[in-house]
Amino acid sequence: MHQVIQLLSKVVQRHAPSRMLSFDLVHVFKTMQMMSDKKKVSRSSLMQELGLGEGSIKTLVKHLKMHGLVENSNAGMWLTNKGDTLYTKLHATVPREMDIAKCSIALGKFNHAVLLKDMARNIKSGIEQRDAAIKAGAVGATTLICKNERLVLPGTGEDLMRNDQKIHSLIMKELSPEQNDVIIIGSSQNKKIAEMAAKSAALYTIEDHEKH
After folding, report:
1. Chain segment 115-126, per-residue pLDDT in tens
2. Topology of 94-211 in CATH?
3. In 39-158, where does DSSP find H-type helix?
4. What confidence score (pLDDT) does residue 160 get?
5. CA-CA distances (angstroms) from residue 145 to 63, 104, 152, 199?
6. DSSP annotation of 109
């Protein structure tokens, strides 16, 4: 994953004397995800899904093209073979996600969970993931680790799901976490922000893992 994160980090680097960029790793991830799902996407759909203005989308696409990750035509934009290979590797680490109803572990009006494969060793208390989600606009985030088919709080082993068996069963069914997998739930009053915040916290965790 080191090369993947390294390349994605280059995409979000500012090129002097350009202005400060209004997008970061999570916008690149979401863009590639959309192209993988829909094959071709328009700038208007990127603006809507990413919450960025036309100028920012134009710059984002330009940076992606500079690194050979996307191509475009009047019909839209799509991943190149290089971009598809890169996204496939990233998707293997963040393979599944889902929306979650408000409950004891997800207190926002909207809550979005992402699965991180085999990242338990890189989770300390979960505060770092919460802070990354808040930085992305969320009201908070909950980090859970899969241990012996239970979803527990990092560092404590406390099973917060014991009183929410319906949600627990739904998460286990939809995300299929295995031993030492991590689930990060971003919470917000806005649906898109909850999703982007959860993804931001996941990418922070991958980046932190690569640093060590």
Report:
1. 999 999 999 999
2. Gyrase A; domain 2 (3.30.1360)
3. 43-50, 54-66, 81-93, 127-135
4. 78
5. 35, 16, 5, 16
6. S
pTM tops 0.70, yes or no: yes
Helix ranges (DSSP H) in 78-178: 81-93, 127-135, 165-175
- Are 159 and 168 in contact by the 8 Å Cβ rule? The answer is no
- Determine if residue 176 is left, alpha or beta; phi over 0 gives left, psi from -120 to 50 gives alpha, anything else beta: left
Q: How confident is the model at residue 185 (pLDDT cuts 50, 70, 90)?
A: very high
Which of these, 43, 197, 208, lies nearest to 132 by C-alpha position? 197
> What is the dihedral sign for C-alpha 125, 129, 132, 137?
negative
Token digits of residue 168: 């627990």
Distance CA 141, CA 132 (A): 9
Helix/strand/coil (H/E/C) assignment for every residue in 188-204 = ECCHHHHHHHHHHHHHH
In the chain, which segments carry CATH 3.30.1360.30? 94-211
φ, ψ dihedrals at 18, nearest 5°:
-70, 165
What is the length of the chain?
A: 212
In tens, the pLDDT along 39-87 reads: 899 999 999 999 999 999 999 999 999 999 999 988 899 999 999 999 9
Assigned token pair, 55: 């100028």
Return the percentage of the chain with pLDDT > 90, whole number. Answer: 75
* Top CATH class, 2-91: mainly alpha
pLDDT at 184: 98
